[in-house]
Amino acid sequence: VQLQASGGGLVQAGGSLRLSCAASGGTFSSYNMGWFRRPPGKEREFVAGVNWSGFSTYYADSVKGRFTISRDSAKNTVYLQMNSLNPEDTAVYYCAAKARGTAGVDKAYEYGYWGQGTQVTVSS
């Protein structure tokens, strides 16, 4: 499956952005989906995940209550709605896919497919 992330940009603290990740070349419902990010000078970290059906979602503590992950099977797209952004959210954001039925949601090595990344910059 190929993943194409979009929607990043520059936003002021307190603002919102919605990231999109369009999947192609595979059966969308066969994959659990996740968002990860790499802040400047730091390691890649888990942000949010959603299972193949969309019924189960998972979040890093740092984004709980501010970010929402969702998926639209009709559009083969997963979204990350980001509200109340702060400068610590500045990072390159990546979407990823892992085979349905595999355990774990927050470990990058579990994901076999990655998008190209989209830059999110939050100014103070």
Written overview of the protein:
It is a single chain. With 124 residues, the protein is an all-beta fold. Helices cover 0% and strands 51% of the residues. It has no helices and eleven strands. It has strands spanning 2-6, 9-12, 17-24, 31-38, 45-50, 57-59, 67-72, 77-82, 91-99, 113-114, 118-123. Strands 2, 4, 5, 6, 9, 10 and 11 form a seven-stranded mixed β-sheet that branches. A four-stranded antiparallel β-sheet has the order 1-3-8-7, with no helix packed on it. Strand 7 and strand 8 form a beta hairpin. It is globular, with a radius of gyration of 13 Å. The protein starts with a strand and ends with a strand. The mean pLDDT is 95.
Task: Write a concise keyword list for the protein shown above.
124 residues; mainly beta; globular; four-stranded antiparallel sheet
**What average pLDDT do the residues reach?**
95
Low-pLDDT runs of 5+ residues are none
- How much helical structure, as a percent, in the residues? under 10%
Number of E strands: 11
Q: Total number of helical segments?
A: 0
What is the assembly state of the chains in this entry? single chain
Structural class: mainly beta
What is the C-alpha radius of gyration, as a whole number of Å?
13 Å
Helices, strands, pairings?
Layout: E1 2-6, E2 9-12, E3 17-24, E4 31-38, E5 45-50, E6 57-59, E7 67-72, E8 77-82, E9 91-99, E10 113-114, E11 118-123
Parallel strand pairs: 2-11
Antiparallel strand pairs: 1-3, 3-8, 4-5, 4-9, 5-6, 7-8, 9-10, 9-11
